[in-house]
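User: ok so my PI wants both of these folded by tonight, can you help

Assistant: No problem, let's get them done. Here's the first:
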Amino acid sequence: MEKSTKAMGGAGGPMNAQAQALANRTEAIKTFYTVSVRHFGAQGDGRTNDDTARASAESKSSSVYWPEGTYLLDQAPDIEKSWGAGVCLVGDARVYLRPHPERATSIKAEAFGLPADHATDASGPLQRAIDLAQSLGLPVELPANAKLRLAKGLVFKHGQAASGDALTYLPRLISNGATLYPMPGVTAISIVPRCLLADASSNRGNARIEILGKLTFDGSLGDATSAALAIGKSGYFCSSLEWNRIDDILAAHFPSGSTVVTFTETRHYEINRLVIFSGGMRLQASAPGSFCGDMVFNTYEGQGSKTYPPLALVASGGAAGNPSMVRGIRFANGTVYGAGTVLLATGNSQLGDIWMSDIQFDSGASEKGECALEMVASGSGATLINVKVSSPYFAGYRAPAVFAHADNNATFMNVDVTDLYANTMFLGNYGDNNQNAAIVMLGIGGMNVSGGSMSSIHGDGASSCIVNVIGSKRIKVESLNVIGTDGVVDGVTIGKGDSDSYVITNNLMQVSDAVVNEYGSGSPNRIIANNMLVTA
C-alpha cells in the first residue's frame, strides 16, 4: 500500500500512531486481490486441520476465499479478509463468513455466534461484534427482528482519549427491528465518551452517533435498576459537529418507577420517534462547565411519575462563574403520560432555550399534588430562562397544569405558555404553596400566559382559582377563555403586597366570584382591563 508523505509524517519520517491506525483501517476494509485458502494447502474435508493454510493465506492477501467445504481451525479466520461458502469450525463453534468479497459496509453480529432465541445471553458475541466494528469505523448490524437477552450491557466507545487512542470511535448501530432484553441491573446500551471535558477544544470528542432501523428495548426480564439507553458521562465531552441521529426507538415493559433513557452532558442530536411506554427520560448536566443540549426531539412519548418523571431536564452541580448548562432543546408533537415533567435548575446552573410545541400532557391517574409541568429555579446562582411552551394540552391532573416557582434569589424569567388547552382538571388543596389552581406562579421574575381555553375545571368551592400569582413580578395573563367550571371561585388571584408589574387583560372566565381577585395591601404597577365574568 502506498503511503503519502503526509501520512508518513514528512519525507522519510516515521508514520505517527494515528496516521498508522488510519492506514490500517483503510487497508482492512478494502479488497485488493483474492487468494483461495486451497492454494495454501487447505483440504476442507472436515478431518484435516487447516489452520496452517489459513495463517499463510491471511499473511499473503487482504482477501481470502474459502470454497465450499468444512475447515477445522485452531483460530478463527480474519473476519474482514475472509469470504465464501466454506464452513469454518473452531472447536465446536462455527465462524460465519460473508458470502461475497465486496468491501464491508457493516459488521454482521450473527457472524459471532448469536444464540437462536432470547433464552440465552447474547451480550458476549454482541460486544465482540461492536468492538470489531468500532475498530474498523463500521456500523454493527443486528439480525432482522432478532430477540437478544443481555446479561451485561453493551458498550460503545465514543470519540478519542487524549492518550492511548489512535482512532476516533464512532458508535454506529443498524438495528433491523431487533429487540434487546436487559436483565436486572443492566443498561442495554451505553455510549461512553473518551474525551475529557477539559479537552473539549481538541475536537477529540466529536464523533457521530447513529442508531437506525427500529430498535426495541424490552424491560420484561429486568427490574427497576434496568435501563434501555445511556449516552454520555459526567465530566466528559460527547458531541458531533455533523449532528447525531437516532431514529425509531421503543422502550416498553420497564417498571414505571425508573428512568430508562439518559443523556448526560452530550449535545447535537436529531431524534425521531422515541417512545417510552413505561419509565421516563432524563437530560442532565452536573459538572462545572458542562453542557447538555442542542437537541431536536420529533415525536417523543414518555410515561412516568413525579418521583420518576416522564421527562426531566436537570441542570445542577455547577460552580460560580462556571455553571453547568442544559440549553437549546426542542420538543415537537409529543405525548407525556403521567405527572411530574420537570425543568429544574439548581445551584450554579442554567436551564433555558427550551421549546415545547404541540405536547399532550395526559394523566387520568395522577396523585394529589402531581402537576403536569413543573419549572423550577432553586438556589442562588440558578437560572431558568427562555422557555417557550406553545399549544400544550393538559388533561386529568389533580394539581396545577403548570407550576412555576423560584427560591433563594434564583433567576426565573422569559417563560411563555401560549395557546394552551386544559380539560378535566381537579383542583382543591392538593399541594403545597397554594397550588389550588390550574396555573401557579410562585416567586418568579417573568412569565406570560397568553391565549387558550379551559373547560371542566373542578374546584373545592372555597379557594380554587384558575391562575394563582404569589410573590412574582413581570407577569402577564391574557386572553384566556374558561368555561364549564364548578367550585372555582376566582379567575386570577394575586397579592398586591408581594407581587408587582403585572398585566391581566382580555380574559373571559366562568367562575363564581371574580375574574381578578387582588388581595392584601400595596400599590403595585399593574394593568387590569377588559376582563369579563360570565355565567354558564
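One down. Here's the second:
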Amino acid sequence: MGGEASRRYVVSMFSYPSGDLHMGHAEVFAISDAMARFARMRGHDTLFPVGWDSFGLPAENAARKRGLDPREWTYANIATQADSFRRMGISFDWHTRLHTSDPEYYRWNQWLFLRLYERGLAYRADAEVNWCPQDRTVLANEQVVHGRCERCGAAVERRDLTQWFFRITDYADRLLDDMAGLRDGWPSEVLAMQRNWIGRTESVDDAGRTMVAYRLHDWLISRQRYWGTPIPIIHCGGCGAVPVPDDQLPVRLPDSGYRLSPGDSGSPLASAEDWVAVPCPRCGAPARRDTDTMDTFVDSSWYFLRYPNPHYTDGPFDPEALARWLPVDEYIGGREHATAHLLYARFITKALYDAGLVPFTEPFTRLTTQGQVLMGGKAMSKSLGNLVDLRDQIERHGPDAVRIAMLFAGPVEADVDWADVSARGAERWLARVARLAAETGSGVANSDPAGEAATRREVHDTIARATALMEAKRFNVVIAQLMRLTTILRRAAESESGGTSPAVRDGVDALVRMMSCVAPETAAVAWHHLGHTSPVADAAWPVDSGERQDIPVV
C-alpha cells in the first residue's frame, strides 16, 4: 500500500479561522470530500487531511478590537469550524490535524527559514516597500491590488524600510520551465497567471547581447505584526545578524508584555522588552531579537509536507511519510491563489529539493480550482449584507442537501450564485432515494426476467457514466445521472407486482454506493435500509458489467 499507483493524497487549501465556515468553504470541501470518498471506494490508499492556517492579521485585528489575546480568538474559531466540518460530514483523517500557530508547527517554519538563510535564499536589505497604513505592516507585491491592500482596501504607501526577503527570483526560470510538466494536471488559466506574473522578457542590447528581464521580485516575508512566526535572528552590535541555534527553536511568541498597537511603524514584538533583550548566541554580548514575524504565506508554503505525520519531532516532515504520500495527487482551492500561495509553494518545494530534503520538484500533481460562491451576482461580504450563514443552511436543509445544491449548480470551475440555487430540490431527491431504499429493503424478492434485463442495462450504463464523470470531476453531471437512475428504479419497482426484483435491489444498492460520495449522510441511512451492517463508506464503488465500454462523458 502507499505506492503511487494505489495511493491518493487529496488536500484542500486549509481554512483560515476568522469565524465559522462560510458558503465558500462548503463548496471547496464538498468537492474535495467527494474526491476523497471516491478514491477510497475505488480501493486507493487515501489520505484526506485537515488543518488551519491560523496565524495572520485578521485574527490579530479582531483580538485587538475585542481586547483579547489572539490565541483566544483563533482557537475558539478553530473549535467552531471543526464542529461545522463534523456537521457537514466531511471525511477528514482527523489524526493529521495541525494548526500553523502551534509552536510545534512554527518551530519548523523557523528551521526552514534558517536553512534558506544558510543557502543565501533568505536575506535582509533596505528597500522601498509597500506599506499599509491601516494594518500598519508591509505588504508583498502580490498583496497589493490596484494600489490598495488586498485585505483591508486601504491605499498603499511606499516607504524605505529594512526587511527580510526570500530570493524567489533565483528560481524564476525553473518556475517557468517546469510548467511544462504541469500542463496535464493544472488549469491553463492558473499557469498563464503565473507565467505573466513572473514575466520573463528578452531583448537585445546595442552590442547584440540577449538581455533577460523579469517582472517577478523577491518575496518580502517580514511583517510588523504580532500573530505570526518570529523570525529566528538575533541582532548583535559586534556579530551582526546571528541565527538562533536549532536547539533553541522554537523562538516562541511572548505571552505577555507586548502591545498590539505599538504605533505607526513599530512591531508589537518590539514592545516586549523582556522578550527582545537576549545575549548573542555567538559572543554572549547583549543583543536583541528580530521583532518582525513571517508572512503567513510561509506557513502555507509547506504545510502539506507535514500533514502525513504532524507529530514528527525530528524535522519539519517525516521522510518515510513523505516518500509514501508526496507529492500531493489532488489539490483543491481558488484560482485567486495563483500568484501567491501556489507560486510560493512551488518555490519552497524546489528550494527543499535543492537542499536534499524532498525528492520531487513540484508539490501538486493535479490542481482543481473552484468558482466563487456569490449572492445576487456579488461576492458575499458583511459590508454588502449578502452573507448566507452556512450553519443556518445546514440546520434548515441538512448537510447533504447543501452539498448537493452546491455541486449540482454547475461545473466545479464555474461561479455559483446562491440566489439561483434551491436546496429544497436536493432535499426532495434525497428523500426519494431514502424511501426507495426503505421500500426495496423491506420488499419481498420477485423475478421478472424481461424487466430485469432492461433495468440492469440502465444501472450499468449509469455506473459507467458516473465512474468516468467522477474521474473527470464533473460532479453536477454525476448527480444528474443519479437522479435519472432514481427515476428509472422507481418506475421499475412500481411496475413489479408482488415484490422487488433482484435487478431493482442491485440497482438501488449501486445507486446508494455512488451517491455516498456526494450525500454521505443520506446514503448511510439508505444503506441501513437495504440491510447492510457495515458502513457504506467502507463499500466498494460499483463495477460496470462491461457491456457499456464506450459510453461518452457528456
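Residues 424-538 form a domain with the Isoleucyl-tRNA Synthetase; Domain 1 fold (CATH 1.10.730.10). Residues 548-554 have pLDDT under 50 and may be disordered. Good luck tonight!
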